[in-house]
Specification:
single chain; alpha/beta; ten-stranded mixed beta sheet; nine-stranded parallel beta sheet; 27% strand
Length: 256
């Protein structure tokens, strides 16, 4: 399953059924789980752990040293879950000791061509990062996040689950769960209610989220006062609870 033209370090731990294409380079301290495919000219550097059934396409650079000038060669990690697709030319860097020492990508994510994931980023599950989207260091994404093409995210920003950034947007503050962002600097432009309908969400659930959005973004209330209302609404809704927690846990402040 390993092309004879590939270069694989003898200490790399690769499951027996992993397919490795020609001219791929897999260095030491790399683990690759069953069912994965590593296409031609891919470079994987360790320490990196890659789970099962991942596809990494040609010319991707995975697990490289980060670009943080404070990095001094410490042993840091990249951890990738299962069923991810990493397309051509993506760059994914390991973590730094200034954070938790690891970059983490969850399960069932799609990173389209030329996406950049910097050091210490954490990406949840079922996220889609469109072509040329770029995450600076220490960025955190929840689950089912969608970033449009050429979207960029400032370091230390947090992006809540089910949120969306339109293409060419630049995010400098935190993006709460469910909220759509657009522009540079990015501003809130509603919630992805149409996407919710396509996923079969009930009208009651959608209307409650609409009310929650208006409480934060249309009522003129301070965020702290809006959170008091959301906390009451969250008693009957896990979706409102997630929305409220993504605002409460913001460290950079939320976009408005």
């Amino acid at each position: 399953m390993i092309d004879p033209r590939a270069i694989v370090h003898p200490d790399a731990k690769i499951a027996d059924d992993v397919w490795v294409g020609p001219f791929a380079v897999i260095e030491e301290n790399v683990e690759i789980g069953s069912g994965s495919k590593i296409y031609a000219h891919t470079i994987i550097k360790g320490p990196t752990i890659i789970g099962k059934n991942n596809k990494i396409f040609q010319f991707a650079s995975v697990g490289e040293d980060c670009q943080d000038l404070k990095y001094a060669g410490e042993a840091t990690w990249l951890k990738i879950g299962d069923n991810n697709t990493i397309r051509e030319g993506c760059t994914i860097h390991r973590g730094t000791v200034q954070d938790n020492g690891e970059t983490v990508i969850g399960n069932n994510n799609l990173l389209m061509a030329y996406v950049h994931v910097a050091h210490d980023c954490i990406i949840g599950n079922h996220c889609i990062l469109s072509n040329n989207a770029a995450l600076a260091g220490h960025v955190k994404l929840g689950d089912s996040v969608l970033l449009g093409g050429f979207a960029v995210v400032h370091q230390f920003c947090q992006i809540g689950s089910y949120s969306m950034m339109r293409g060419m947007s630049a995010l400098f503050m935190d993006l709460p769960a469910y909220v759509m962002a657009s522009g540079s600097p990015a501003k809130a432009s509603g919630m992805n209610f149409e996407g919710m309908r396509r996923q079969g969400w009930s009208s009651e659930k959608i209307n409650l989220l609409r009310k929650a959005y208006k409480t934060v973004y249309r009522s003129g209330l301070m965020v702290s006062d809006a959170l008091l209302i959301l906390n009451k609404m969250a008693k009957d809704s896990s979706e409102i609870k997630l929305f409220a927690e993504s605002i409460k846990n913001s460290k950079r402040g939320i976009i408005r």
